Automatic annotation (TrEMBL):
Sequence similarity: Belongs to the glycosyl hydrolase 2 family.
Pfam annotation, one family: DUF4982
Family annotation (InterPro entries): Beta-gal/glucu_dom_sf, Beta-mannosidase-like_N2, DUF4982, FHA_dom, Galactose-bd-like_sf, GH, GH2_Domain-Containing, Glyco_hydro2_dom5
Descriptive protein name: Glycosyl hydrolases family 2
Organism: Pseudobutyrivibrio xylanivorans DSM 14809
Keyword list, A-Z: Glycosidase, Hydrolase
PROSITE patterns (UniProt xref): FHA_DOMAIN
Record domain FHA: where: 190-253
Domain of life: Bacteria
A single GO BP: carbohydrate metabolic process
Keyword Ubl conjugation: no
Length: 779
């Protein structure tokens, strides 16, 4: 069937507002803003809930009478009902899986049709983080003949790689099947039949280093006439795992991973394909070769980008099972819906070579008791019945399971109403807050909470049901499992980023430990202040309004890496040069409030206007024996590297800061420098040189000098306007602000802000006004 975009000219309405002719996908929750008294609290970033009504009018031409039409929703958050011409097509509860409805029996041909979608995201909290709301992933029409290939009815399986052999299975409601295998536009092999095998000579294999993609062009014939066709991309690759490691195409592979939430920063949860591709590209450039989709199935666009760039994916099904973590979350629907949602995820993922693991859940407490173990085993068995080619894992927190087994579960009774006195006492309104509070106090000690024989015995039934054991914050288990569980394969499914040096050394040391996924690779909305270092005081969790971002990402919501990302690049040997990180020097005498999820708040900047003489703490990351730091040519001394890091203290003065790495014999290995900005001003910096109508443009709006050096201590409130385009969002990475991504006004943060624009005309002009000067740029 043909897939047609169905995203334009929707009307949108809530009790408070009505907007005509919007283009999907969008994030409806952004439109209602934030309030200190939001029922979602810090977990939702103080955004509020609502009921969203959508309507789209469209013509159904007469030729559709003899065709089959379906509608595909990539993702709707949450609890939606779909009606066509007043007839209910169905509903869907989970916010993160795609779904389709057959339109044939409700379409009125040759006249206008009215499609209506009601989305109920009014009851908060329904998640532990910011979810966004409404139709936040793309919508498509699927149109084909009555006799057609089933949607997602083509499965391509790699049977062998030397020589390459694939199996092509096709689900259709009639006819004969022919398949052409295409590489770079050329047919290189073909086969016939609904279930056939085909050899591919001189095949190029897919991996993170060689993301080679093929196409299977599948044609359906009825009595010799072509009645339907579809094309599926796939990669030829074999994955295997054992206590000797993870192997892709026979090569041992270590996962340089990061956890990633689904929102896209200043446009909220809106899953624009361009946004997903950009994020994957930046992650790859920063040295990541793996993503954990936390804690829900990734968007299709993200998987397509991972296929293209070569990123391994752990696609995760759920954050909760039947024990709710917040009052109104998916735990209410789990028992009724989990099978259909798991099936949807696995069937969609099947042809994506990037997906190498399915995760059955994140930090679920249920396996602490026998019925929970059985539930986990049932999910594992169900996935294997659909796809036996991939590994199954889970993000398992040993402390959470053991406490649940002892009747002290963090997620017990979250569905109960609170009394006014309980709320006044400041008790956590959802279990996530309690867990984050506990983790903040325990800190890295949580890594040892699963080391005891008692916890090991309790958790082994569910861990042994998995192909690969996923440990959340349990790196104390890594050295133990080789002896206690010699057949176990382990992955660090969630870890503290500042422990990347220690963790990666263990990944290299223990063959059964196949990788590490830090929390988090990319910052996100919600869990406000969880990982942020604050100069305004307060506890490092559940920060009050107007905190909005988690602050835990080594890449901020705009896509800018910090020094922690550089630390990982050093540890992973992505760079052989020292990385210089500078903790902000513009808060003299103020004690910073730290978070257990972040080991530093340093950024790669030596440009702090007006901070001359302030104390400066400089962190140098290097894979070397010693490092020397020079300020304006004067040595500040040499220090030995420990855990890939050395710390220097000095006083800020503008100029050039240089780090030189040495080996044990005193020979220079490499060097790198940071420079202060000269006279800086507002600069409009599109990320691409050329855009076409319909493109999504990411435009960085920075305070920088003529050489592109960003000034970190001269932030300005900027007003942005667009002619010839639509401003989709404008903001910065400030984790604590009352400013609004949809207003067109925002203050830079450490000199950086960003606008996201949909180009609507051949000439698009961006204007930035900081109150002193107006800057324009035509893109």
């Amino acid at each position: 069937m043909k897939r047609l975009e169905f995203n334009s000219n929707w009307d949108f309405e809530t009790k408070e507002k009505k907007i005509n002719n919007i283009t999907l996908p969008h994030d409806a929750q952004l439109l209602d803003g934030r309030r200190a008294d939001s029922a979602g609290g810090s977990g939702h970033g103080y955004f509020v809930g609502n009921v969203y009504e959508y309507e789209k009018r469209f013509a159904a031409p007469d030729e559709w009478k003899n065709q089959h039409v379906e509608i595909l929703f990539g993702g709707v958050y949450r609890n939606c009902e779909v009606r066509l011409n007043g007839k209910k097509l169905g509903d869907h509860r989970y916010g993160y899986t795609q779904f389709t409805f057959d339109l044939d029996n409700a379409l009125e041909y040759g006249r206008e049709n009215i499609l209506q979608v009601t989305v109920d995201n009014s009851k908060l909290p329904n998640s532990r983080w910011y979810t966004g709301g409404g139709i936040y992933r793309p919508v498509y029409l699927l149109i084909g003949n009555r006799k057609h290939i089933t949607f997602q009815g083509v499965k391509v399986t790699t049977l062998d790689i030397d020589p390459a052999k694939v199996r092509v299975q096709v689900a259709a409601n009639c006819g004969d099947i022919k398949v052409d295998i295409i590489k770079d536009g050329n047919v290189i092999a073909n086969t016939v039949g609904a279930d056939s095998e085909v050899l591919i000579n001189d095949a190029l294999l897919w991996s993170d280093e060689t993301p080679e993609l093929y196409e299977a062009h599948v044609m359906l014939y009825e009595n010799g006439t072509l009645v339907d066709e579809t094309t599926e991309k796939f990669g030829i690759r074999k994955i295997a795992w054992s206590n000797n490691g993870l192997f892709v195409n026979g090569k041992e592979t270590l996962l340089r991973g990061g956890c990633v939430h689904h929102d896209n920063g200043i446009i909220g949860a809106a899953s624009l394909p361009e946004s997903e591709w950009r994020r994957v590209c930046i992650l790859k450039e920063q040295g990541f070769n793996a993503i954990r989709s936390s804690h829900n199935p990734a968007s299709t666009a993200m998987l397509e980008a991972c296929d293209y760039y070569g990123i391994y994916v752990m696609d995760e099904a759920f954050d909760m099972w039947y024990v709710r973590k917040t009052k109104y979350d998916y735990g209410m629907d789990f028992k009724e819906c989990w099978k259909s949602d798991v099936r949807t995820m696995v069937e969609r993922d099947y042809n994506h070579p990037s997906v190498i693991m399915y995760s059955i859940g994140n930090e679920v407490s249920e396996p602490g008791k026998p019925e929970g173990v059985e539930q986990g085993k049932e999910i594992v068995s169900f996935i294997k019945s659909i796809d036996s080619s991939r590994a199954i894992t889970g993000g398992m927190n040993l402390m959470i399971m053991s406490q649940y087994a002892n009747g002290k579960g963090q997620y017990d009774n979250v569905d109960k109403e609170q009394s006014a006195s309980e709320a006044d006492d400041g008790k956590a309104k959802n279990a996530s807050l309690f867990f984050n509070m506990m983790a903040s106090f325990i800190g890295p000690g949580m890594n040892k909470a699963g080391n005891s024989d008692k916890v090991d015995k309790l958790t082994s039934p569910i861990l042994d049901a998995l192909d690969i054991t996923g440990y959340n914050y349990a790196n104390g288990r890594y050295p133990l499992d080789g002896e206690k569980h010699p057949d176990r394969v382990v992955v660090g499914s969630e870890t503290f980023p500042y422990e990347i040096g220690k963790n990666w050394d263990m990944v290299k040391k223990y063959p059964y430990l196949i990788g590490d996924f830090m929390w988090t690779a990319w910052d996100y909305i919600g869990e406000a202040g969880l990982g942020a270092w604050s100069y305004t005081g307060g506890m490092p969790f559940n920060r009050p309004y107007p905190w909005v971002l988690g602050g835990a990402g080594v890449i901020d919501i705009l896509g800018n890496p910090d020094a922690s990302a550089g630390y990982a690049k050093v540890v992973w040997h992505i760079t052989d040069k020292p990385v210089i990180g500078v903790r902000p020097v513009n808060h003299p005498g103020v004690r910073v409030s730290k978070s257990v999820w972040r080991g530093t708040n340093a950024i790669e900047s030596w440009s702090w206007k007006g901070c001359e003489g302030n104390k400066a703490e400089v962190e140098v990351f290097a894979d070397a024996y010693q490092v020397e730091l020079l300020l304006n040519g004067k040595s500040l001394g040499r220090k030995k590297i420990k855990d890939y890091k050395a710390i220097f203290k000095t006083k800020y003065q503008p100029g050039e800061l240089t780090a030189i790495a040495y080996d044990i014999n005193g020979n220079m290995l490499s060097r790198s420098s940071l420079k202060s900005a000269d006279e800086s001003m507002v600069c409009i910096c599109p990320e691409k040189d050329k855009y076409e109508v319909g493109d999504i443009a990411y435009i960085n709006i920075n305070i920088q000098d003529n050489e592109g050096i960003v000034e970190s201590n001269s932030d300005e409130k900027i007003e942005v306007s667009v002619e010839g385009g639509e401003l989709l969002g404008f903001g910065s990475a400030n984790p604590c602000t009352k400013e609004d991504f949809t207003s067109g006004e925002y203050t830079t943060y450490y000199g950086r802000a960003q606008a996201i624009v949909r180009i609507t005309e051949n000439e698009c002009t961006i204007t930035a006004n900081d109150g002193n000067m107006v800057v324009e740029k035509v893109i």
